[in-house]
Amino acid sequence: MRETNSYKQLRENLLSLNLNQMALHLDEVLDFGIQSGASLTEVLVKLTNHEIDIQEQQKTHRMIRSAALPSPKRLDTFDFSFQPSLNRDQIADLHSLRFIERNENVVFLGPSGVGKTHLATSIGVEAALARHSTYFTKCHDLIQKLRIAKQENRLETKLKHFARYRLLIIDEIGYLPIDAEDAKIFFQLIDQRYEKKSTILTTNINFGSWEEVFVDPKLANAILDRILHHATVVPISGDSYRLKDHRTEQTVSDETDNIEHY
Ligand code: ADP
Ligand code: MG
């Protein structure tokens, strides 16, 4: 028979220590101990594992949430047959996060809708799952945050904040022009991360035209130099996946139209 008082006390202790999973599974683990004749150590390991499992899960969820990824896209939903220009092994290798260990960068370069954000995001999910501090931002939002910080005399702090992420994903470089003042701030961030942390960038602008995006050609080159020194560039040439969906919808609606007409 279970010692009622000490059992109750143990349960209360676990709850007051916030070890809720251990309290929840206490009965089941004690029964396991009695039935299997497992040692006290084995029983305690089994009990503490319940708490560790849930804490790991919660930590992972927090990492994913704080990464601010636009959607939980994964590589398994990426259709390589639609994008034959891509090297599957290279993309799989990027998802192994080896580049993060080596503080290298990745640039996805290509027109709209070819999957740049999808792939940057799916690598971001892997990084967050592997507990690398990860943050996803559109280039324009990042620059805006840095600009406001500068106006409020806290640029250094903000730069340090963004420089600390193990993986920073900067989406959509070049969709909007970046003036000389903003380009300087952006350069500072890239310079602080250079050879220390990994950055993934997506862009629809060929490197030769970055001078136009960053207005000041010297700054554009300094930025590109640091990004590309240790980088995997993944050019994606092909059709927009968005238009493929559009075409499918079009076909479906055409068919629906036809049905209605008959
Ligand atoms: P980009 O950033 O290059 O403009 P996105 O990554 O945003 O393009 O892709 C547009 C949409 O199409 C997204 O919903 C994305 O998940 C999807 N998509 C793009 N390419 C593929 C692909 N090869 N397989 C599956 N989904 C894709
Ligand atoms: Mg995109």
The CATH superfamily of the largest domain is P-loop containing nucleotide triphosphate hydrolases
> What is the total domain count?
2
Please report which band the strand proportion falls in: under 5%, 5-15%, 15-25%, 25-35%, 35-45% or over 45%: 5-15%
What's the total number of strands? 5
Kindly report how far apart the N and C termini lie: 77 Å
Structural write-up:
Residues 249-262 have low confidence and may be disordered. This protein has 12 helices and 5 strands. Helix content is 60%, strand content 11%. The chain has helices at 4-16, 20-36, 40-66, 88-95, 98-101, 116-129, 139-151, 155-164, 180-193, 210-213, 217-229, 241-261; strands at residues 105-109, 134-138, 167-173, 198-203, 231-235. 26% of the residues are buried. The protein is elongated. It folds into 2 domains: 5-66, no CATH class; 75-244, Rossmann fold, CATH 3.40.50. Strands 2-3-4-1-5 form a 5-stranded parallel β-sheet. Bound molecules: adenosine-5'-diphosphate and magnesium ion.
Summarize, please:
This protein folds into 2 domains: 5-66, no CATH class; 75-244, Rossmann fold, CATH 3.40.50.300.
Features:
Rossmann fold; alpha/beta; 5 strands; disordered C terminus; five-stranded parallel beta sheet; binds magnesium ion; binds adenosine-5'-diphosphate; elongated; 262 residues
